[in-house]
Amino acid sequence: MLAKKKVPGDRRPVTRDKEAKIDSIIEATRELIVSMGYDKVTIRDIAEKADVSIGLIYKYFPEGKFDILIKGFGAQNIDGLMMVSRQEAIDYDDFPGYIRSLIIHWQEIMETNKPLIKALTIAALTEGEMAGEIKKVDIKDYLAIADVFSRFRGIDIGDKDPMEMLAYWGMTIKGILMLDLIYPVPFANKSALTDLLVDMSLNIWGYRRGK
Q1: Which parts of the sequence belong to the HTH tetR-type domain (predicted)?
Q2: Would you list the domain boundaries of the chain?
């Protein structure tokens, strides 16, 4: 029997097929969390909605549901925003500009993903499944970010631990942004809130221009 002749273009390249499935898993997870709440979503739910097998999900995301969030949203945002892997592109003489770009980007991400952010915020505050997952997050990405921040000229945190400062700064700024998302802060416009958060950030990091 003759082997079936392959027709060029009848199958997508493996890489594209893999990326499409991963994107489908991430999008299915996003939609289900928004509609059902984080704690109620199961891997089976995600597999059915994404039209993939449960085994395939664990192949790409071994730690399950929270792993999808971290790799699908968190890790991408960390590197995209902080430029951890592109440090040569950072102007270490312009800490205010770096901070402003981060905050503006965070505002855009939260506005674009408002339903998801709200659902995740509620899940994190209810001491449910997600609260336990957050405590197990690998801190290596945050160590890299702390290293980036410590390189900027003009900041002065004295003998404080850069990781502790990063955590304090992150909780403060993101906390206000999340509050504004759920209960809008009474500012004239978004840029006014941005200015306030930039000033707070510079103060937290002890920034002094020209130092």
Answers
A1: 25-64
A2: 69-204
pLDDT for 89 equals 76
The runs of H, that is alpha helices, within the chain are 14-36, 43-50, 54-60, 65-69, 75-82, 95-112, 114-125, 129-134, 140-150, 162-182, 190-204
Residues 97 and 91 sit within 8 Å (Cβ to Cβ):
yes
- CA dihedral of residues 171, 65, 72, 168 (deg, nearest 10): 10
**68 CB burial (10 A radius; 0-12, 13-18, 19+):** buried
User: In the prediction, which pLDDT does 93 show?
Assistant: 93
Residue the block writes with tokens 């002749």: 5
- pTM comes to 0.71
Lowest mean pLDDT among 25-29, 65-69, 91-95, 130-134: 130-134
Question: Do the beta carbons of residue 207 and residue 92 sit within 8 Å?
Answer: no
Closest to 163 (Cα-Cα) out of 147, 179, 151: 147
Nearest by Cα to 112 from 166, 45, 172, 34: 34
Using CA atoms, how far residue 59 sits from 19, 25, 95, 120, 134, in Å, is: 13, 12, 40, 24, 21
Structural contact between residues 58 and 43, judged by C-beta atoms closer than 8 angstroms: yes
Domain 69-204, classified CATH 3.40.1130, yes or no: no
Q: Is 77 a residue whose pLDDT tops 60?
A: no
